[in-house]
């Protein structure tokens, strides 16, 4: 059976992207158990390109300010997201989370893709950001994370400093715009079927099955 | 229809758009809320 190509637009600072990743992985595991094959490629999407690299204060404070709500409301929202993430086996830690701009992280993901390690870095970056309170917006910190999954630290520093993959990030975002993608995560199966959001494993499995059908 | 493909699944709001992520509205006691809760979105 030919592998189903799945193109996924997502961001690192995107709580639904990590939840969706787990749900999608359940569907993929089921699909593979049934004899299927999947080829996944992640694409860049910046949810908040205007966010600076360095952000002071608790995430709830920024959330409250952004929405014009109280800090108590914001903390409640984050607590609910944390509970939901826990149902997928994820341990979100908003007290430790360090908000930042994700453009450099996306460039690192393109470097990782060039080395066949994109999936590994995607997982590591999401965990670093949501579960481990690590900074994912600085060159040196990103190089540390990338080195943990086998990338050459010096190469990462050089690529991020030089903006080697900046154009690739822009191309991904331009493609998302061309597709009319307005939110992430967004999944495209075999270029024919789209799934918006962190939907259930059943929805993802259905999409994988449909993608194996011969077009009429 | 988004893009050149058929959309599958439900529109259940589990996405982030422009830095804003859809989340359930907070369920705090009204005495703890500084503003009314009408929407169901939050940047998370």
Task: Give a structural overview.
The complex is a heterodimer of chains A (216) and B (44). By secondary structure, chain A is an alpha+beta fold. Chain A has a single domain, classed as Glutaredoxin, CATH 3.40.30.10. In chain A, 53% of the residues lie in helices and 10% in strands. A four-stranded mixed beta sheet of chain A has the order 2-1-3-4, with helices on both faces. In chain A, strand 3 and strand 4 form a beta hairpin. In chain A, helix 6 packs antiparallel against helix 7. The longest helix of chain A is centred in the N-terminal third of the chain and has 19 residues. Chain A starts with a strand and ends with a helix. By secondary structure, chain B is an all-beta fold. Helix content of chain B is 0%, strand content 23%. Chain B contains no helices and four strands. In chain B, strands 2-3-4 form a three-stranded antiparallel beta sheet, with no helix packed on it. The radius of gyration of chain B is 15 Å and the shape is flat. Chain B starts with 5 loop residues before the first strand and ends with a strand. The interface between A and B is large, with 51 and 35 residues. Strand 4 of chain A pairs parallel with strand 1 of chain B, so a sheet runs across the interface.
Q: Could you tell me the mean pLDDT of chain B?
A: 55
How many individual β-strands of chain A? 4
Sequence of strands across the biggest β-sheet of chain B:
2-3-4
Number of domains of chain A: 1
Helix segment count of chain A? 9
Coarse morphology of chain B: flat
Q: Give the C-level CATH assignment of chain A.
A: Alpha Beta
Structural class of chain B: mainly beta
Largest sheet of chain A: 4 strands, mixed
Residue stretches of chain B low in confidence (pLDDT < 50, at least 5 long) are 25-43
Runs of chain A in which pLDDT lies below 50 for 5 or more consecutive residues are: none
Q: What is the helix/strand order of chain A?
A: EHEHHHHHHHEEH
Please provide the ordered H/E string of secondary-structure elements of chain B. Answer: EEEE
End-to-end separation of chain A in angstroms reads: 18 Å
The number of helical elements of chain B comes to 0
Give the quaternary arrangement of the chains: heterodimer
Q: What best-fitting shape of chain A do the alpha-carbon axes yield? A: globular
Describe the biggest sheet of chain B? 3 strands, antiparallel
